[in-house]
Amino acid sequence: MKRASKRKPEKPRTPPVVRTIAKLRRATAELRRRNASIALVPTMGALHDGHLALVRQAKRRAKRVVVSIFVNPAQFAPTEDLASYPRTWDADLAALAALDVDLIWAPTVAEMYPQGFSSRIDPPAVAKVGLEDAHRPHFFGGVATVVAKLFTQVAPDFAMFGEKDYQQLKVVTAMARDLDLRLKVVGVPTIREKDGLAMSSRNAYLSAAERAAAPTLQRVLKDCAKHIREGRPIVDALAVGRAQIERAGFALDYLEARHAETLAPVAATTDEPLRLLVAAKLGKTRLIDNIAV
Questions:
Q1: Active-site position among 51, 135, 138, 227
Q2: pTM of the model
Q3: Is 259 a catalytic residue?
Q4: CA 256-259-264 angle, 5° bins
Q5: What is the tens place of the pLDDT at every residue in 132-180?
Q6: What is the C-alpha separation between 249 and 21, in angstroms, rounded?
Q7: Which of 37, 96, 160, 227 sits 20 to 30 Å CA-CA off 152?
Q8: 17-188: which CATH number, 3.40.50.2300, 3.40.190.10, 3.40.50.620, 3.30.230.10?
């Protein structure tokens, strides 16, 4: 009697990759056949579980999923890490194949910003509240411009953004509303490592000692939120938290309590809903995080 042969599992289908606007338009037109909805997941590559959570949420929202991979030079200052930003194309492709993504939009810089390109989106008011914008004044203009281009290029029904970059999420949401774009921006909760560190492509820059210290940010956020809920004055809770972060070896940019929708400064818990936001450098690596109060 012959033993039944074991079938090897099929290799995941590699999603089509398009690199020009013309091919993208043909591909998305094909995806929309029979009125299929499309969700867009904008990324800069170097994908981790946080990005893949966005893809999974996108698959729940829409019949078709497009992932863009584009390291956007317009959001990097000359002093920042554009040249060294992690690029892991083969691993990214394999991860998206495993999730059965329908299309990857991976334009070149010349395709996204052709010779003579000079337009720029002035980001909405939530981009000018003294958080990321105070430390990276170029950033949201670059983000708003590239995201507006992605939205018009792909014309998705949904666009998925992680809550880790909370101010960015609010900027993109406001921009889409202000420009009457026909899509829904969907925020997806932050995905964390087991020790609480928010997943980020830049975590790869941390040394072993820095990686061990990095979860301090989330622990401080949780402690501050607890103290505020218990009735401690916001200014006192933040002062304690800032001191803890600096004692852990961080160079603190900000630890703030803000209105969760407008990101306006708040002085009391009556100004709810509240969001705590933090940014700090550990060695050469800048980390950000946030939680609801």
A1: 51
A2: 0.93
A3: no
A4: 75
A5: 999 999 999 999 999 999 999 999 999 999 999 999 999 999 999 999 9
A6: 46
A7: 96
A8: 3.40.50.620
